[in-house]
Amino acid sequence: MDKPREECGLFGIYNCDGLDVAEETYLALYALQHRGQESAGIAVNDNGVIAFHKDSGLLPEVFDEKTLNDLGGGQIAVGHVRYAPSDKQERANAQPLVMRYVKGTLAICHNGALTNYGEIKKELEQGGSIFQTNCDAEVIAYVIAKERLYTGSIEKAVQNAMKKIKGAYSLVMMSPRKLIGVRDPNGFRPLSIGRLGNSYVLASETCALDSLGAQFVRDVRPGEVVVIDEEGIHSNTEQCQENTSLCIFEYVYFSRPDSVVEGVSVHIARQRAGMTLAKEHPVEADMVCGVPDSGLDAALGYALESGIPYGTALIKNKYIGRTFIQETQKKRERAVMIKLNALSAAVQGKRIVLIDDSIVRGTTCRHIVQMLRDAGAKEVHLRISSPPFLYPCYFGTDISSKNNLIANRLTLDGICQSIGADSLGYLSVEGIRGIAKEAKVGFCDACFTGNYPIEVPKGPQEDKFSQKIVPHKG
Amino acid sequence: MDKPREECGLFGIYNCDGLDVAEETYLALYALQHRGQESAGIAVNDNGVIAFHKDSGLLPEVFDEKTLNDLGGGQIAVGHVRYAPSDKQERANAQPLVMRYVKGTLAICHNGALTNYGEIKKELEQGGSIFQTNCDAEVIAYVIAKERLYTGSIEKAVQNAMKKIKGAYSLVMMSPRKLIGVRDPNGFRPLSIGRLGNSYVLASETCALDSLGAQFVRDVRPGEVVVIDEEGIHSNTEQCQENTSLCIFEYVYFSRPDSVVEGVSVHIARQRAGMTLAKEHPVEADMVCGVPDSGLDAALGYALESGIPYGTALIKNKYIGRTFIQETQKKRERAVMIKLNALSAAVQGKRIVLIDDSIVRGTTCRHIVQMLRDAGAKEVHLRISSPPFLYPCYFGTDISSKNNLIANRLTLDGICQSIGADSLGYLSVEGIRGIAKEAKVGFCDACFTGNYPIEVPKGPQEDKFSQKIVPHKG
Amino acid sequence: MDKPREECGLFGIYNCDGLDVAEETYLALYALQHRGQESAGIAVNDNGVIAFHKDSGLLPEVFDEKTLNDLGGGQIAVGHVRYAPSDKQERANAQPLVMRYVKGTLAICHNGALTNYGEIKKELEQGGSIFQTNCDAEVIAYVIAKERLYTGSIEKAVQNAMKKIKGAYSLVMMSPRKLIGVRDPNGFRPLSIGRLGNSYVLASETCALDSLGAQFVRDVRPGEVVVIDEEGIHSNTEQCQENTSLCIFEYVYFSRPDSVVEGVSVHIARQRAGMTLAKEHPVEADMVCGVPDSGLDAALGYALESGIPYGTALIKNKYIGRTFIQETQKKRERAVMIKLNALSAAVQGKRIVLIDDSIVRGTTCRHIVQMLRDAGAKEVHLRISSPPFLYPCYFGTDISSKNNLIANRLTLDGICQSIGADSLGYLSVEGIRGIAKEAKVGFCDACFTGNYPIEVPKGPQEDKFSQKIVPHKG
Amino acid sequence: MDKPREECGLFGIYNCDGLDVAEETYLALYALQHRGQESAGIAVNDNGVIAFHKDSGLLPEVFDEKTLNDLGGGQIAVGHVRYAPSDKQERANAQPLVMRYVKGTLAICHNGALTNYGEIKKELEQGGSIFQTNCDAEVIAYVIAKERLYTGSIEKAVQNAMKKIKGAYSLVMMSPRKLIGVRDPNGFRPLSIGRLGNSYVLASETCALDSLGAQFVRDVRPGEVVVIDEEGIHSNTEQCQENTSLCIFEYVYFSRPDSVVEGVSVHIARQRAGMTLAKEHPVEADMVCGVPDSGLDAALGYALESGIPYGTALIKNKYIGRTFIQETQKKRERAVMIKLNALSAAVQGKRIVLIDDSIVRGTTCRHIVQMLRDAGAKEVHLRISSPPFLYPCYFGTDISSKNNLIANRLTLDGICQSIGADSLGYLSVEGIRGIAKEAKVGFCDACFTGNYPIEVPKGPQEDKFSQKIVPHKG
């Protein structure tokens, strides 16, 4: 549906209570499924022997009762859901990456994107290394493996590796006897620590903790290495730094509204975005509505601030999953019609403020506006709860190519006209900076401003092999 | 999730425009999937030769691109989605029922429940008939086949059959050259006529028309037989009667909010229910919230009427499908936690009015109330946008057995206490009668009042064979 | 591979030893899989409640551990494997046919073909009956259901039904408390009784008894109704008659060589056919070889009688199953190459006598002869261990249409030339009559002679609906 | 069925005729399926971009029409079928191994076993390498990648790598523009070159060439590196050596009888083994029979030499595939009964010479002998067409652990008694050496003699992670 896409959801558990770690990981990944729908995987560590299963597909496509049971019990487990950049559903790239190196086994789950991936890879290749995937995780695995040769412990090797790898990386890793959580020094991607009885868990978002009934302990700090073993939780903060830059889009779209990121509720942040939007772009209207589900929270905020009644203008078919019609359907309009329907009785004759979180190419937006007009809306005022996308992301968000971004091609008026709205307003950069002001970290807003918090690569690296796989059923 | 369940969604198309009738039917059934998730089927009629495919499972589990293409093209098609009463997922009972009789082939899709099913079946068996399913559709097929022996046309045979079969039945049928739509004289279940170019369609709900871009023509009248053939649309209203009784629960829960049933928007009816509820059971509170998705529309109405701000208290995981955890999970509480999460930041310290459409057993409700309290809600006032269920339905709604109905076991105070709410209010029977007052038909509210509009059977008929099938993946 | 095809394999068990009847039936059907590869089904009767599962596909495609376990335990079970005539893989036609009628439930498995199917069906339709399949079993079910109305027991009803249905039918049926085996008065298709501890079993062939470790008791007599219940085994022979006509092709091709049909070993009968063939069509040669697997037994006989050494000329790929290449591959030659390969080292420079059981269209034969020549064979003398097919079968064998039969289009010389053999000899009609001379029944050899033992219908009945289903994987 | 197991089948094609390389590879792997049933994979190279698909399962389980088509067209393709040692069906280990290194991509298919796998792996790990599989192919990939750093071409790098890796390895590899075939200097495993029009193919066995209609060119020489590119075929024989040692068991059991290995027909070699066996262990008897399919060829030879008639004593169910009954069935006897049945009519009262190719644990053998006695055989004389297994294989054959080998536990008499045969005779070591005497290579017979042609490792290497996957259906 023409949205930016996040790359991954991570989970890890260190079991001190006789829990079924595979099932806990499965349930936690369910809560994180919105962070990645292309592949899923779980690895279970039973006294140093790792059993794992991963494949492309949604979690319930990858795991059934038998597959999950076959993983067996264990003391530690890690899990991953993944959004595959570009259109390739690559089974070879599914995570966790499970590997054996000089000190035994290591399972790695990664969320983010390295900015020096190509550089390190080239250097490794020139040392004779081979690559079987297109994942950052494989490069990270190599760097850790090499560092481990000269260091006395896995945590020290990880810290050393952090000096080499640049960019965005939240990691959940499992060595034979330890569960390890890492956030890059900028803290681009979130990672939280929770407690379930005597057991510890790590998860990309707090909603996964809630789904297990785990208590939130704290966020992993940007630059911190957290190690959980039989003696409890250890922390190393050597790589922590002053300047941090959490992806602001985690609040706008990626995270689930019931998650709390760096101390700020995502739902509240979105509501605030809507409130600020109402201040910045007021309009006379009869009803404020959100595009389901991405615009609903901000719409509540806009309504609250503006005093215009909140209502429902669009109904989403909750059964739409991976239907092949979406693929074969050439007419994008029809794809939108399958998914959304306008509520004539509610919009008939009304002036509507329609809220969404972002516009990428603008095509879906155009169909929705038309749908509302066909349903009898008198006016449609589009309000976007984030600034226009203008710059590519190098930290793990896939926003489509620069040329496809409507804001790069058209002026504000041009976009409004192209979409067919009566008026259009984007939240300002200032505005968005204020939606999570209590957070204990700084933000990255480079996609709006071009102010990249760290050095970024020059061009994309192209890959030379692909694994084409059969589409999943269900 | 402890809800009453409707039995079916119907669709039919008579093609005058070279449409791909299988694809149109597939898309329409997608829009009707909420009416039945246990099985799906499509039958395509190409010059009298019927190709069909049906199986247990959700639509995209039953049909993939190949299966749909294999149905080929045709002039007429019918489709069905089904909720299987009781826990049996019976592939043998999937519809359309395709049969051959003295005058050729007939495909039948049924929504509702016959009240004299057992009686007719017994009579047919005593005439030597055999039964291969547990469906009303099979009994209806027999009655039509027998009537057809003494009548000159299929429509006349259908009219005669309507004199024999009692109860709730909306039918979409396909004879070699005709598409036929029928509603029982009481009009228990909805059925609408639409137009797509020069082609006609029949659908249980108007949302299916919208999803195809078809224009709504009118509802089939209670008691009417509509026949569509190459000469256009024909109507016979001999069985139409004064007293009609559309299931009021179509407005409360079954139909999609974007559907219009008998001239009344379902969304508006639900909002009204919420408004009346606010008048009948006011309370001082800080926020009005709905249980997603069933209570959201009524919550909007309650907020509107009461002036208490509308907000979001619960987030639903939109990826929860057929996960086996739901089956294996003994602790119901956990199943609720996977599906819903409370929004602490929004409910913390607040007095919440929580709206849902109905309570069946009360177990889910109890977990939700607890979840809100755990999230910091100061008070939770439960408001239900329909009266208490007290009586069984014989017309195609599966409300669970009478003994399981909490309202039959406990007083209002008892229910409130059992659920753990601070207060509890149900919409009155009067109240619910008013939610769709512009409708051109009467209503059945027997589940609340026991006033059955027609005679009902004495006891349940038990079946003697079952088809046990493999649970579907995904 | 261009062979005539049998329609079905039957099995039934009456459990007196706490056996897992579903598993026993599964194993028995495995031994009967050669009798039908298009669909499979098992029905289990637990105190009158029947659970069943059936689908298109090979046995291990239709049943996995879960499906089989889901059938549960029971006192009686019946199973069926089916070859679908024509190219339609119709799931709707899979058996057992499980039905409910005035006296409870009945599960029916049928092998054969009724000659008055169309007639009875028409009559039933004119009485208002409806048909949901294209199976003889459904017609048989109706006739039994109607007879049951006027008779005091199921066995009596079956006997009366036998007076109405004409043609070939072996039946294994299951009523709430009885297992019933029937053979038509001519005994076209085989059916045997076995004993497994205190339990009784019925099976199309004795190889199924062997696979369970069951003891052979006796064949069901042509015209006999065998009823097995808690009091043991009962027999009614009212419909038995003087003239019987077992399909001679059961010995030539259909039955497994390790089965014993009417007292004669199928392997021995085939060996004898080869011996007689050697007498009737001797030739000077260096090696006698069979086309695997259909010609191997007769080749042994030919070698034995002629004194020419038996050898191997063709190797069959034992992993060839349902590969889609067979479907998409237009060049039949390639399909043969995937399946068979000539053994150059064995045939180089040799004069080969090549034995097969029959020629239908001759295409495969031609490719095989060419393959042997390419491998260096000096001469290839084709010998067929049955007479030429000249007449259609109305009793359950699908030999391809009359026009496709090469023996109807060409003279012996013409066939030989078309196939490219150096000489060609068919077993004589006399010869084939002698291969099972100890059998206690007469034979039907109408496909060779046109002497139909009973009246046959005039033309084929065309069906008006088809169920097109997704091809199976694996 | 208690047999030694080979590890792999290889295929490669360099396309000069516009062939569909994916389909040709699929067909060739079909012909090689007997060499590995646990996983299958194909990689297609289209101008340097490699598309691949691999998974655990039989070829038609891994590939369907869509998966194969999705691989697209290309100039080069390689394919692999694999037998997984031990019981783990490891998807992670499926081949081809597709990897990227400093000079682009490389796809590797391996058959054999390295004797210094553990050694090299340890060395690589100490240099910081990581391992994602348990395959020799991964180690080989690393060694080649490292050699490539200091050499000007892939073929030179391969030659250098051959100096480091020890043991048995036939390789089929694909670089961006070359197809490469390699055999280790001992030539433990076979590899042949064929020509299909202007295109070249490489295959483990000639039966794969036959199935494509390709002409046999020659075997790759032990120690030879064959490179096929747009200029044709190139050969480097620097690593060729005097002493070669083809696995003699390729003739006895592994290869298909219609293959020609090093100039000797496998079928003829087996027949000869039977003839020598007849000379070494004559016996008075009425019929010579083979255990299907492994003993049939040798039985023909025994019959030929002894003058005792060849016959059939055991029938094999040709539909037995991956049935779960085999897994769940605890009683081995029953598993044998499902697969094999004795032909009473043929063995009744006879003295049988029963031929098989080998005995591993002896359990299956015991059941078969008993089965023949139950069927009425008067005497059963077991003759084995190879010497007793006494020593483990380090070159890619999985014979079960030393302790399980019956010949290590019992004397000849003890084995005979344990199996219940009337007499027992094994082919002598001398005898087996003579079965392929025209071959242009020497043989490895270490499993019989303990004379390992090269140094072998001390103990087994244990792996630390496993991928447990769902058993495949069908």
Structure write-up:
The structure is a homotetramer of 474-residue chains. Chain A is globular, with a radius of gyration of 23 Å. Chain A is built from 18 helices and 26 strands. Chain A is an alpha+beta fold and 474 residues long. The longest helix of chain A has 15 residues, at 266-280. In chain A, helix 12 crosses helix 14. Chain A has a 7-stranded antiparallel β-sheet with strand order 4-3-5-2-11-10-12. In chain A, strands 6-7-8-9-13-14 form a 6-stranded antiparallel β-sheet, with helices on one face. A 4-stranded parallel β-sheet of chain A has the order 18-21-22-24, sandwiched between helices. The interface between A and B is large, with 59 and 59 residues.
Radius of gyration of chain A, taken over Cα atoms and rounded to an integer in Å: 23 Å
Biggest chain pair interface: A-B, 59 and 59 residues
Tally of individual helices of chain A: 18
Query: Which descriptor suits the 3D outline of chain A?
Result: globular
Number of strands of chain A: 26
Q: Provide the low-confidence segments of chain A as ranges.
A: 461-474
Question: Considering DSSP H and I runs of 4 or more, what fraction of the residues of chain A is helical?
Answer: 25-40%
Instruction: Kindly report how far apart the N and C termini of chain A lie.
Output: 19 Å
What value does the average pLDDT of chain A take?
90
* Assembly of the depicted chains: homotetramer
Strand order of the largest sheet of chain A: 4-3-5-2-11-10-12
